Structure formats: structure tokens, C-alpha cells
Amino acid sequence: MSQAENDVGHVAIEIAKFLAKAEPGELAELRRMEIKLGARLFWRLSAQYDRIANRPEKWAVIVRMLALLTPTGSRESKESVHDGKRALGAVLCDGGQTGPVERPLLSESRLARLLAARSKIRLEALERAVKMLARNQVKLNTAELAWAVIAPERATAQIAKAYYKRLDSTAKDEAIEESKDE
């Protein structure tokens, strides 16, 4: 397997595609899996990707989050939750909705706590945010989600930038509309 094929982002995207074709029972098992024990499907993925095998506890968190985001239902009708154009921070802001953001899905204070948290507490906060997103059946950049788990310090600025860019674009659009009305 080439280095590019084993890249964190590539592996996360491939896992999202794989989970879209998983049986509902397999997804349920992944959603409930204990990080230190894994699940059948997790170990199958681990056998396919060296990245997972080398850091199973981090990847178990990623796989569980992707399983939470993957809708259940007929395998034939499901699509991957990956959308490379939908930054994690932007989706945390708008909840997957297009158009103006009246109120962020994840409040600014919760975002600040998430980004300031470290280690296990950060992963728990990120998983709670993912559960909120799952209720809205969002698509997002799964590579960014994986990096938020693997290298949180690297992802912090990227998440914040996308969140505030999305939030501020709404404020900017409203200001333009108000100036047109005058």
C-alpha cells in the first residue's frame, strides 16, 4: 500500500465509503463499541489499513464517530457522509444547512470549550458534537474529522477558522441586505 493510500485523510474517506455499505447491525455495533475492545468491522478495517493498526485507539474513536454520522437504512440507498467541500468547523456552525445561519448548531461557547479541551475530554466533547450533527444527517469533510482526533492541535485553528468564516458570512450577508434596504 502506498504512502498516499495510507494517508490519514484518504483512510478516513475510504472508511466513510465502506460504512455507507455496512449492514445496520454492523453500524450499531460500531456505534456502541468500546474503544479498547473494538468491534468486528473495526478489526476488518484495521487489517486493511496500516494507519489504523498502528494507532487503534485513535482510529476506533474516528470509526465510531463516522458510524454515528452514517445513516441507517438500505445499503443500496446510502451514500458516504464525506463531502470534501463541507469543512468540519462550518458544519459545526450551520448543522449542514445552506443559507443564513440564524443560530449556530454548536454555540460559540461550546466551540471554545471543545477547542480548549485536551486529551480524553476533547474527544468526548468532539463525540458529543458529532452526535448533534448526526441528528441532522450532515455530510462533512471526514478527513478533517480524522485529523481532529489524530492531531487535535493541528486541527484547532482550522476548525475555528471554518466555523467563524461560516458564521461571519451570514452576518456579512445580513449587513449587505440592510444596506440595500436603506
Descriptive notes:
With 182 residues, the chain is an all-alpha fold. Helices cover 67% and strands 0% of the residues.
How would you sum up this structure in a few lines?
The chain has ten helices and no strands. Helix content is 67%, strand content 0%.
Structural class computed from helices and strand pairing: mainly alpha
What order do the SSEs take from the amino end to the carboxyl end, as H and E? HHHHHHHHHH
Could you give the distance between the termini? 61 Å
> How many strand elements?
0
Beta-strand portion reads: under 5%
User: What's the overall geometry?
Assistant: globular
Helix content: 55-70%
What summary fits the major beta sheet?
Answer: none
Low-confidence regions: none
Quaternary structure type: single chain
Mean pLDDT: 90
Rounded to the nearest angstrom, the radius of gyration is: 17 Å
How many helices? 10
